[in-house]
Design brief:
alpha/beta; three-stranded mixed β-sheet; 14 strands; 40% helix; binds UDP-4-deoxy-4-formamido-beta-L-arabinopyranose
Length: 339
């Protein structure tokens, strides 16, 4: 298959590029490097041992994107490109709606004009909103999002559902990620948050490396065994494989399907801290802080639909995620910044 990866220089996009290439497929990256580094391209070349076809293009730029479609005969598109910071989106709704929706609509227009009718979308469990009905199943209602970022994911799912309904030849897979963490075993690519990390794992790795002083654990009074929040952490390499399996599924099926990509197992913040310390032989100083607004006690997937229809299942353990995340942090104390 020949696959376009919009936002392919990002955390999940770059790992998906490696998985596609090593499976013998042709992957092409489009990225405007707003939220990613050009250094990723050379890292990908090192890992795969071949030149990386990429274009420094904004997906909102219809003409520039069309030029890319003229150069390649794509079987499918995996749409990663978009702003993705939950907290930032609350203060910048106009930018989030403009960028995430405009890029998607522009992409769909160019796909239609170029006769490309398969798309895998990078969605999120955040579209399930504030529910305590676990595990989450694709048949459950979505919406009730708690931030503009989540609403853009919800709206883009609806846009793609409607496009599939209007165009019977289209094939759409909406992949709802749970909590992606970890890094490629080489330690050459990984999660590189801009500024202070919002998410748990990059915060832990930066505390363990001494870059940050201590971890704030947001609440230990949740109705969970140890009182801290429970999430479904999934290794980014397992997540990447899910995209390959979704592309293969779309080669044989039309219409729109939603899939949870999670392990189905929930771990608490303290589970994560203790596991990280044990497998990496480091300490992660922390203190208990107040709950973070918008957080729910537990969130984990029922991943059985992806297993049944895609033949996909996560294999890597929490230990693997902690070891691989620490290797990336240790080898890249400043992420992709080379200075
Ligand atoms: C995990 C747990 C926190 C940081 C978010 C987005 C979601 C998706 C994944 C994009 C929670 C606790 C965290 C910290 C802490 N992103 N925590 N101290 O909130 O489950 O999901 O990232 O699709 O859309 O909402 O992930 O890593 O922020 O939090 O105690 O410094 O760790 O309370 O229980 P979350 P997270």
């Amino acid at each position: 298959m020949t696959i376009l990866l919009t936002g392919g220089a990002g955390f999940i996009g770059s790992h998906t590029y490696v998985a596609l290439t090593q499976a013998g497929h042709e992957a092409v990256i489009v990225d405007n490097f707003y939220n990613s580094s050009q250094e990723v391209i050379s890292r990908l070349q090192t890992i795969t041992g071949k030149a990386v076809p990429y274009y420094d293009v904004d997906v909102c730029d219809h003409h520039a994107l069309d030029q890319v479609f003229q150069k390649h005969s794509f079987d499918a598109v995996i749409h990663f490109a978009g702003y993705k910071a939950v907290g930032e989106s609350v203060g910048m709704p106009i930018e989030y709606y403009r960028n995430n929706l405009d890029s998607t609509l522009t992409l769909c227009e160019v796909m239609r004009e170029r006769g490309v009718n398969r798309i895998v979308f990078s969605s999120s469990a955040t579209v399930y909103g504030m529910t305590d009905d676990m595990p989450l199943k694709e048949t459950m209602s979505s919406g009730g999002c708690t931030n503009p970022y989540g609403w853009t994911k919800y709206m883009i799912e609806q846009i793609l559902r409607d496009v599939a309904d209007a165009n019977p030849s289209w094939a759409v897979a909406l992949l709802r990620y749970f909590n992606p963490i970890g890094a490629h075993e080489s330690g050459l690519i990984g999660e590189d948050p801009v500024g202070l990390p919002n998410n748990l794992m990059p915060f832990i790795t930066q505390v363990a490396s001494g870059k940050l002083k201590e971890l704030n654990i947001f609440g230990n009074d949740y109705p969970t065994p140890d009182g801290t929040g429970i999430r479904d952490y999934i290794h980014v390499v397992d997540l990447a494989q899910g995209h390959l399996d979704a592309c293969a599924y779309l080669m044989a099926h039309t219409g729109c399907e939603v899939f949870n990509l999670g392990t189905g197992v929930g771990y608490s913040v303290l589970d994560m801290v203790h596991t990280f310390e044990r497998v990496n032989n480091v300490t992660v100083p922390f203190h208990i802080a107040p709950r973070r607004p918008g957080d729910i006690a537990r969130c984990f997937a029922d991943p059985s639909k992806a297993e049944k229809l895609l033949g996909w299942k996560a294999h890597k353990s929490l230990e693997d995620m902690c070891i691989d995340a620490w290797r990336w942090q240790s080898l890249n104390p400043n992420g992709y910044a080379t200075v």
